[in-house]
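Friendly challenge for the regulars: who can give me the structure tokens for this chain first? No prize, just bragging rights.
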Amino acid sequence: MAGFNLTSSDPSTFILMGIPGLEAAHVWISIPFSMFYIIGLLGNFTVLFVVGKEETLHKPMYLLLCMLALTDISTSTSIMPKALFIFLFDLKIITVGGCLTQMFFLHAVSIMHSAVLVAMAFDRYVAICNPLRYATIITNVRIAKLGLVSLIRAVLLILPMPLLLSRLPFCANHIIPHTYCEHIAVAKMSCGDITVNRMYGLVLAFVVIGLDLTLIALSYGLIIRAVLRISSKEAHQKALNTCTAHICVILMSYPPGLFSTLAHRFSQDIAPHFHIILSNLYFLIPPMLNPIIYGVKTKELRDKVGKYICRR
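First reply, four minutes later:
Bragging rights claimed.
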């Protein structure tokens, strides 16, 4: 215990507690978490491999799907290796620099993920509402430029977070009751005024989520209007089927993400272990299910994946 207290007072390190109150069950919790993580990696790397190998899939829609897979891989990998080390080996120490780096990558990739969903909504809008001009409006080059803009936006918006935290004085207690370095969880350990940190994080969450959701809602509003103008029920069904996978991914991404953000700030009545488990599952379940959803709903991708599996 003395060693633990000595480590926690080291100003250059933090201690990630994992899931407070469930320490005895850490090993058992690691089993489903590691399974979800591995399945997610296999699914997303399969998407990247198949799209990369098949020239017929070198299209904007599949490039966007690859971007989604990359953000899913990066999101879960930002937190799970360290979380599993905590669960399995009780390795709770993380340097301040490592903590701020983890926080930066986690939040930046989350914003990139949101931007990719917006781009996918725009892609579906053009495909349904303006199909004759789709090939000229949505090109691989434009998708690449959108990816670059998404990256720049994420970096510029998230960079102030670790910079603001690095200027704060931290108390002697460097214990973070979580499995990863979340912005507000780290800020709460400071002895200084964290009003700016709180406001910036909250405003950023609502601005990014609000703007991106507005753009997605606008795209789907125009899609619904265009679909309602089609007289054929078969055409209705075909048009809506092209959006099903994207809608499923949106529903798995935004509501849990918004809940997690708000719970970190207003979670007085939520059991800490319940909130922490949900936060981890938010970064595990969507990356695991996204490639499955697109694999099932996208015939061309499903056929190509099946071809490689049957070869084995």
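The chain is about 75% helix and 5% strand. Residues 96-129 form the longest helix (34 residues). Your move, everyone else.
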